Amino acid sequence: MSETNNKIGVLVMSYGTPQSLDDVEAYYTHIRRGHAPTPEQLKELTDRYEAIVGGVFPLRENTNGQVAGLQDKLEQLAPGRYVCYQGLKHAVPYIEDGVEQMARDGIKEAVGIVLAPHYSIMSVGSYNKRAQEKAAELGIKMSFVKEYHLHPKLLQALSERVTDGLERLAKSSGNAAPVKILFSAHSLPEKIREMGDPYEQQLLATSDEVAKLANVDAQDWQFTWQSAGRTREPWLGPDILDTLKVLADEGIKAVLVAPVGFVSDHLEVLYDLDLEAKQAAAELGITLERITMLNKDPLYMDTLAESVINAGSLE
What we know:
single chain, alpha/beta, Rossmann fold, four-stranded parallel sheet, 15% strand
């Protein structure tokens, strides 16, 4: 039996990204539940990745770095008590792979945490369900961090980024006014509202607290959605591209996007915001900047570690 069998496992879960452009088709097929994308769909997604990575593929390293950063922080706070594993929704190592590795290492107790602060049954809930089912099958006692959207250190990290972003926006726009801050997150199907899902309200709560910490007046910010899926059912809106059109009509000249629903640089940030939204804003006469992402920010690592320790006080 491994020497890790007296430690608490930490399964760090996220959506996952391909490891290289060669893996995009397999990744897209998994997202589509085993149905291969059409050549047109594959080309569109591959083109998006090529536009942001230019033949290099650093996106996967963001998650790897966050897992390593969390391990380091846990070791500082509770030496020798925790060991981190990675589990991805749509790429290897899959969530089940991470749980199986814990079992092979003799782990008997574990905590699951998703690299997403806000809970939805369709996102964090689905990750936790997969992990719980595999853990039960393998005899691992598992608890979960459900959400951490109001953790003080997360709010501090985000508010500092808003303040910094506003300074950059003032420079790039030539102090253009008026300015609007757009907090954003990945859209989900509208049906979550009928389900009483907390996702939307948690995002609004985070945005409100971050705005207050950054001394942003209520009338100077609003929430918008982005990166909706292309399905027949309606998704939460308005989309940021539609929001920008409305703001242009209102005379807004500069926009800072704060994608608080995301914690690292990836496709929805580097393409949907940095390329697509920025171009759309420019065509509307709006200067657009976005806040820097959390990635391995020490305050975010503190947030994750403290959340894990609080959830991992297993009897």
